[in-house]
Amino acid sequence: FKNQKRGNYKNFPPGPRPLPIIGNVHQMDIDKPYRTFMELAKEYGTVFSFHLGMSKTIVLCGYETLKDALLNHAEIFSERPDTPMFTATSKGHGKPFDNATNINAAVTNIIVSILLSKRFDYEDPTILQLMGLFNQNVKLFSSPAVVLYNSYPSLAKWLPGAHEKILENVKGLEDFIKATFTKQKQELDINDQRNLIDAFLAKQQEGKTESTNYFHNENLISLVVDLFGAGMETTSTTLRWAILLMMKYPEIQQKVQSEIEQVIGSTHPQMEHRKQMPYTDAVIHEIMRFGDIAPAAVPHSPTQDITFRGYFIPKGTTVVALLHSALRDKAYFEKPYEFYPEHFLDSAGNFKKNEAFIPFSIGKRSCAGETLAKMELFLFFTSLLQNFTFHSTPDAELDLTPTLGATNAPKPYEICAVSRR
Ligand code: HEM
User: Fold this and answer.
1) What's the CA-to-centroid distance between 231 and ligand 1, angstroms?
2) Ordered alpha helix ranges (H), 188-216
């Protein structure tokens, strides 16, 4: 948004109070969209909007504004905007290695077991292909070609670019999913439903109105794509932040390990252990806050014209709840830009909730997998630190700057995992 013209209200529909509208795609600093959002939030206050090509986007900032909007004005968030790309997609002991694929495969297997009641070996070509398609799309989502495609779809669809690759990957995913559930349909036993896909197919065969209206094949594909898309990369990226941060702050890693020794010992970690582990719980919360993996959540769109805090928001506008601004809100976090587990601890070392901790968003359209994600994070994190101590290679810098993508992910890094057993 460098050198933007201020106060360009001309294309904005009339309302009680016009929003400050700024910039457009040509002036946008594409390399740093999230940081730029924050800078803009500081300059323009809690609600601002901008034009990205043909579409208008409204950004809501700061925990107080987000709480008011997400909890009290659910109608602002009732739909997903008609954004073209969204519519189209609906090892060795002590030796350095990159753990990204293993972590990704472990998390993917959780979704695979819910959907198909099976797991893949980490080297299985099917899981590698599945992960490859999703991971590539997450990276491509924020590429300039996709921004252009979302902004000027009728023009950009004729040009070559990343949007083509995304659509090709989605097609690959859909083919995989179709082949999988077609096979499962042949084996279906209504009286012995093994997994989510079986349950869906059983509903389909009930012959009720809802069977044809909701439980049709297209919805099954969307459901499976959504669960993979929403549940795979998010959790594994958070775990990659977790290991990177533990390598960066070995004294914090050691404190977590001491608590694991005291509470869990050498047994398998269970969710029941969490309430006796305030320090570990605080560290996991701080990993999520600092990692800030979904800084702009997922775009929303109101189904009707609405006035929010005196601002007029027309039906169909893209609305962004900038979770980043809540997770870095200095009114709620003492050291917003530092990794500081004490944000979630009281002076006696007990776990302390912080209401601005909203990495899953809040309200009716918040993350559907929050409970599952929290379980996965606790169980994976404690199992990993129970069995290994992580440290970096001698000359590694351990850069905490995120890479650009649909999520804030750590840059690729190598780890040394030293067995504790
Ligand atoms: C650390 C892990 C995760 C984080 C930080 C996270 C965060 C989010 C966020 C910010 C949203 C957008 C809410 C909005 O629309 O504003 C979302 C949506 C969603 N998430 Fe998650 N998520 C995580 C893991 C998961 C998992 C494991 C699943 C399921 C397997 C999942 C399923 C979903 C679904 C289905 C939605 C769409 C909900 C809707 O549109 O109504 N998420 N998540």
Assistant:
1) 7
2) 196-204, 209-213
Those residues whose C-beta lies under 8 Å from the C-beta of residue 174, and which sit 6 or more positions away, are 221, 225
Please state the ipTM of this predicted complex: 0.98
What is the spatial distance between Cα 389 and Cα 373, in angstroms, rounded to a whole number?
A: 23
Query: Is 308 in a helix, a strand, or coil?
Result: strand
Domain limits, the chain? 101-231, 239-293+343-419
Instruction: Give the pTM.
Output: 0.82
The answer to whether the CB of 331 is under 6 A from ligand 1 is no
pLDDT, one tens digit per residue, over 211-259 is 888 888 888 888 888 888 888 889 999 999 999 999 999 999 999 999 9
- Closest ligand 1 atom, residue 107 Cα: 27
Q: Is the CB of 226 within 6 Å of ligand 1?
A: yes
CA of 235 to the centre of ligand 1 (A): 10
* 61 assigned binding-site residue: no
Residue closest to 100 by CA, chosen among 140, 139, 135, 137? 135
